[in-house]
UniProtKB/TrEMBL annotation:
<dbReference type="InterPro" id="IPR005119">
    <property type="entry name" value="LysR_subst-bd"/>
</dbReference>
<keyword id="KW-0238">DNA-binding</keyword>
<dbReference type="InterPro" id="IPR036388">
    <property type="entry name" value="WH-like_DNA-bd_sf"/>
</dbReference>
<dbReference type="InterPro" id="IPR036390">
    <property type="entry name" value="WH_DNA-bd_sf"/>
</dbReference>
<comment type="similarity">
    <text>Belongs to the LysR transcriptional regulatory family.</text>
</comment>
<dbReference type="InterPro" id="IPR000847">
    <property type="entry name" value="LysR_HTH_N"/>
</dbReference>
<dbReference type="Pfam" id="PF03466">
    <property type="entry name" value="LysR_substrate"/>
</dbReference>
<dbReference type="Pfam" id="PF00126">
    <property type="entry name" value="HTH_1"/>
</dbReference>
<keyword id="KW-0804">Transcription</keyword>
<protein>
    <submittedName>
        <fullName>LysR family transcriptional regulator</fullName>
    </submittedName>
</protein>
<keyword id="KW-0805">Transcription regulation</keyword>
<feature type="domain" description="HTH lysR-type">
    <location>
        <begin position="3"/>
        <end position="60"/>
    </location>
</feature>
Length: 291
């Protein structure tokens, strides 16, 4: 019987969290989708893995047996995949989110090429619905990310740089003519937000910790083009890194500095299992040197 490793990762998250909602937030999937995947795994195995109640998800005897074995199984599979890729071709997979280390990226890749002749960097852009840019699913080896992000305590993270958070506004907005805006003046505005399953990463870009009251959501997007279109069409405003004004300049949108907000940070992240991987270590060193 063949079982998709993704189902096992989902099972492991639910087993560790003991709660579907928390596991779904950790995996960046919706709760109904996660429930469906768990039921699919139970159907394939022909047994019930969880006892469901309003208090959460408790492992059955069969579930405990699987929970004891899955972590080692997944670690072994991830290690085998990394070794196979390294033996087959010299490619380092680097996940990234839009605007993360944009200006430094060419210098990082050039420096890595000098350190590792014959190696190629495969840059993979992730949607904002996955703030780990593929690391959580082991789809990439390292990732350039905006900090903080959900699940970062389970990964190795080094901060590379920080920059102010600005605001992106429709050009027709009454505050668009200002040179600088107080964040308090933006509290009641509708916002273009990341998907809800991104948890406190989304909250960071809504300024949730630095405002009073709940933010109003005017639109939800997970790609830069959709985000820009929503702002330009007047569905809401959005907080953005200062560099967005250079990389995402669009007709109909203006970017302005905001007072009263802490800066945003960019980091490099990788799995603890790769602590001894010299290729990953070289890429991290290039990131630190370039920033």
């Amino acid at each position: 019987m063949d079982v998709d490793t993704r189902l096992l990762r989902y099972f492991a998250a639910v087993a560790e969290e003991g709660h579907l909602t928390r596991a779904a937030e950790r995996l960046f999937v919706s709760q109904p989708a996660l429930t469906k995947q768990i039921k699919q795994l139970e159907a394939q195995l022909g047994t019930t893995l969880f006892t469901r109640s309003r208090h959460g998800m408790a492992l059955t005897d069969a579930g405990r047996v699987l929970a004891d074995r899955v972590p080692a199984l997944l670690d072994g599979w991830d290690h085998a995949c990394r070794e196979t890729r390294a033996a087959g071709k010299r490619v380092l997979r680097v996940g990234f989110l839009a605007s993360a280390a944009n200006e430094a990226t060419p210098a990082i890749i050039a420096a890595f090429g000098r350190r590792r002749p014959g190696w190629r960097v495969d840059m993979r852009q992730a949607a904002w619905s996955d703030p780990t840019a593929g690391l959580a699913a082991a789809d990439v080896d390292v990732a350039l990310l905006r900090l903080p992000f959900p699940g970062q305590d389970e990964l190795r993270v080094r901060e590379l740089l920080s920059e102010p958070r600005w605001v992106a506004l429709p050009a027709s907005h009454p505050l668009a003519c200002r040179d600088e805006i107080e964040f308090r003046e933006l509290w009641d505005e509708p916002y273009v937000a990341a998907p809800a399953e991104t948890g406190w990463w989304r909250d960071h870009w809504l300024g949730a910790d630095e405002r009073e009251g709940e933010p109003r959501i005017g639109a939800v997007t997970d790609q830069p083009d959709e985000w820009l279109s929503a702002i330009a069409n007047g569905y809401g405003i959005a907080l953005a890194p200062e560099s967005a004004a250079r990389f995402y300049a669009r007709p109909g949108i203006v970017y302005r500095p905001v007072r009263g907000l802490s800066p945003t940070r960019v980091g490099i992240a990788w799995h603890p299992a790769d602590d001894d991987n010299p290729v990953v270590a070289d890429f991290v060193a290039c990131c630190l040197d370039a920033t």
